[in-house]
Design brief:
2 domains, five-stranded antiparallel beta sheet, 9 helices, 227 residues
Length: 227
Amino acid sequence: MGRIKLCNIILESRDVLEGFNEVELGEEYPVGFNLDEFKNLWSYAKKIRYAEEHLGKPLGRGSSRVVYRVDDDKVLKLAKNKKGLAQNEAEIDWANDSYFDNILAHVFDYDKEKHLWVEMELALRTKKSDFKRLWDVDLDELDIYLRNFYDRNNGRRTSFHQDEEVKDKLDNNEDVMNLVDFMMNSDSQPGDLTKANSWGLVKREGHETLVLIDFGLTSSVYDNYYS
């Protein structure tokens, strides 16, 4: 997938729900769960039944996807409808782009034919304070910054006031610029990217790292399934 620099479509809204509390560590897969067997189940209903029997209660449900914890490393996202399939497909596409590896949760495996399911990196739930601690960024200020960025890049007056000093600080924040780059390349919506529950905490090279765990609601998905 090719990359572009700072193009100009940003919407807002989101669908799902992840970011998980710390839980007991598990085995590679719970006893009785077989990924190959799961892959070969032909219907969504059978996959849901199998997941619930072998993985237990879902970590969360949205209008388009349901999410199960597999073990201490992975979650399993199952699409419930066309919206979920489209979001899974978007996450699969962008998680495979190594350029954004530093801000996206890893995708380990996925349904290569229908995008019915995605096996993704498990992350711990984030709080606003994590952005201040790790990025030196106030999440509310980041939200204003991204929304104003959208307006400027679409030839409009900015919608929200932001102190010039704050803007300059964010302009020069490498983490923020990486996020802006992803937002513009992936056609993601700023309303999603500044919600704490779109993010999770993982360990990368021994360091706590903020990564997006819910990044499938691009503007094209929104336009096709939510508007």
